[in-house]
Amino acid sequence: MRTSPMIRWTAALLLLLLCSVAAAATTPKGDWLLLPDRVWTADGDAAHAGWAVLVHDGVIAAVGPRASIQAPADAQRVELPGATLTPGLVDLHSHLFLHPYNETSWNDQVLTEPLAYRTLEATAHAKATLLAGFTALRDLGTEGAGFADVSIKRAIEEGLIPGPRMFVATRAIVATASYGPGPRGFRPDLDLPQGAQPVTGVDAAVAAVREQAARGADWIKLYADYRVGDHGETMPTLSPAEIKAIVAAAHQIGRPVAAHAASADGVRNAVEGGVDTVEHGYGASEATFRLMKQKGVAYEPTLTAVEAVSEYFQHYVPGQSAPTPAMQESARAFRTALKVGVTIGNGSDVGVYAHGENWREPAAMVADGMTPVQALHAATDVAARILRQQAVFGRVASGLRADLVAFTGDPSTHIGDLAHPVFVMKDGVVYRTPAGTP
């Protein structure tokens, strides 16, 4: 009797997922005594030499000088010489269903890669993200993969696959005929799959919010502008009325709203429309950033995505070339937001570049004007507040969940040390230990 292709594919997928769990080398919850050289708690700016952290059943039970912590006799001790322990890192702008555009263009990923294949890719990306020390992730749109992010989130929560805590936005909302693939550049008789959910008018916009929330969206993402000008210029797409309707409908059912907005008018429309976060913001004026601060709108600058696109398509070579005009614009916006005092969270747009290299965004923020400790806050306690999760994770403090990472060196003084994780724990489960540690 021949088995169907679907049964064979399902069996292969299950085997791969189970293998991926085994490969992550997870260990059960219990009592853990973590002994790094220093602990950076995110409650202040300085790392504390000679401190330790005690974890009990997934919760931080104690943190402080080693001599002050009474650990159970059977606690598992993890020595982390030369390392700094920090809260687990957070990336507020990711796309698990994308991979770098110099491997496969965005159009080809959406049009030619099957959903099952993209889901398997996302599984691998989630694992790479966690092992890099990022224990929480806001994934802002599946880019044509429908509601598959909800299933990835569920599989992580149920222990089927390793990955960070997920906060998902499902399909994202765009104005009709303003995103992609196409319709510009494609035959007009083709009915192309779309990278987001297109709407026209207030009623359709509200319906999309309700549908996405019902399907499992934790956040609603909208595109306030996109490259719709005659020559590809970025211009507003959703109307102010549509943006306000999306925000009102989302807030009514407890979903915050993230806005893709890159142009001056697009950012202004999004902020005046009541969104909770602005992504990119490259063309925003100082006056708009001041309005963001006044209204408590957070900002994710996605500097690394601009750098990556400059490498792929504009011949930029890091360390050799002058910054491209796009990089100069994004740096100007970032420095303006920093000067004004806007809340800045770590959001990278990873997927444009390789998953697991999320650390590059805090490094880029430091290169463009932040101190290392400011960037570290942006990726921990500040990011947790933006997610409304500050009572759950984001600091090394008694009573919070044990999302903890250790890096060789001290990223609070040298941000590049984020590239060297040696220990990763999420919710009290260990996923990465130093080489040679059981």
Description:
The chain is α/β, with parallel strands linked by helices. It has 13 helices and 19 strands. It has helices at 5-23, 106-112, 115-131, 148-157, 202-215, 240-252, 264-272, 286-295, 303-313, 325-340, 360-367, 372-378, 381-386, and strands at 31-39, 48-49, 51-56, 59-65, 76-87, 89-94, 134-139, 165-168, 173-175, 197-199, 220-223, 225-227, 234-236, 257-261, 277-280, 298-300, 404-408, 421-426, 429-432. The strands form five sheets. Strands 1, 2, 3, 4, 5, 17, 18 and 19 form an eight-stranded mixed sheet that branches. Strands 11-14-15-16 form a four-stranded parallel sheet. A three-stranded parallel sheet has the order 6-7-8, with helices on one face. A hairpin with a 2-residue loop joins strand 18 (421-426) and strand 19 (429-432). Helix 5 runs parallel beside helix 6, helix 7 runs parallel beside helix 8 (286-295) and helix 11 (360-367) crosses helix 12. The chain is globular and about 70 Å long. The model is unreliable at 1-12 and 14-25 (pLDDT under 50).
What characteristics describe this protein?
single chain; 438 residues; alpha/beta; 8-stranded mixed beta sheet; 4-stranded parallel beta sheet; 19 strands; signal
Tell me roughly what share of residues is in helical segments: 25-40%
| Number of DSSP-assigned strands | 19
Low-confidence stretches: 1-12, 14-25
User: How does the major sheet shape up?
Assistant: 8 strands, mixed
**What is the rounded Rg?**
22 Å
How many helices does DSSP assign? Answer: 13
How much strand? 15-25%
Q: Choose one word for the global shape.
A: globular
Classification by helices and strands: alpha/beta
